[in-house]
Design a protein that fits this description.
This protein has helices at about 5-25, 40-50, 55-70, 75-85, 90-95, 105-125, 130-135, 150-160, 165-180, 185-195, 200-209. The chain is mainly alpha-helical and about 210 residues long. Helix 1 (about 5-25) packs across helix 2 (about 40-50), helix 1 runs parallel beside helix 3 (about 55-70) and helix 4 (about 75-85) crosses helix 5. Pfam families: DUF4125.
């Protein structure tokens, strides 16, 4: 089997595993509409994993397997952690006591990554304003009970990673920063290509039309 096929199968298996956990995530007020939208879920999540090195993909796949083994749901936890900002009282009462506590050192490491990615996303939105308008709001200060920012979403997601996965993620972010690359731009490029556009300029132009 070729390396490219193996990589594709790993990425697809991660997206499918997340989708399976997403299907077991209980949403207040009933099942969310996005829980029935596999094509969009697949496009958005695959766009992210396509930017990751194989070692990071494998480590996160192991996280999902371990979560199943011990009865955790990383997707549920991710959305739960976001509520620290979007519904803080409910988070303190019904979520925080039941999810793993993050050490101060772990939180500081995550916040350094988040600051870098928020800066990347701000830069991308300035250069591609129409694509930017289609994205989440950017910062936690813009959160509402019904609207979750890119910053808060990322904070929730990073909080579910094992220490090994977070370390590999930090390494990836540092390498991209050193190379002058923008992770948000790479992710959205994958998104628009999976959506049938030739690239970012094509997608921006069509959104502007």
């Amino acid at each position: 089997m070729s390396t490219a096929i193996e990589a594709s199968e790993l990425q697809e298996s991660i997206v499918r595993h997340e989708w399976d956990q997403f299907q077991r995530t209980n949403n207040e007020g009933g099942r969310a509409a996005c829980q029935g939208n596999w094509p969009t879920f697949h496009q958005m999540r695959l766009s992210q994993f396509l930017t990751w090195p194989t070692e990071l993909q494998r480590s996160y796949a192991d996280d999902l397997d371990e979560a199943d083994r011990v009865g955790r749901n990383l997707v549920t936890e991710k959305y739960g952690r976001m509520m620290a900002s979007t519904a803080p009282e409910q988070y303190r009462e019904t979520i925080e006591p039941y999810i793993p506590r993050l050490s101060d050192e772990r939180v500081a490491r995550q916040e350094a990554v988040i600051a870098r990615q928020v800066a990347w996303t701000r830069d991308f939105r300035e250069r591609y304003p129409h694509l930017g308008e289609a994205m989440r709001v950017l910062t936690t200060s813009e959160d509402t009970p019904s609207k979750t920012s890119f910053e808060t979403y990322l904070r929730g997601e990073l909080g579910t990673y094992s220490d090994r996965t977070l370390g590999l993620y930090e390494t990836m972010v540092a390498a991209k920063a050193a190379a002058g690359e923008n992770l948000t731009e790479q992710t959205i490029l994958n998104t628009v290509r999976l959506g049938g556009f030739d690239g970012l300029d094509d997608a921006e132009a069509q959104l502007a039309a």
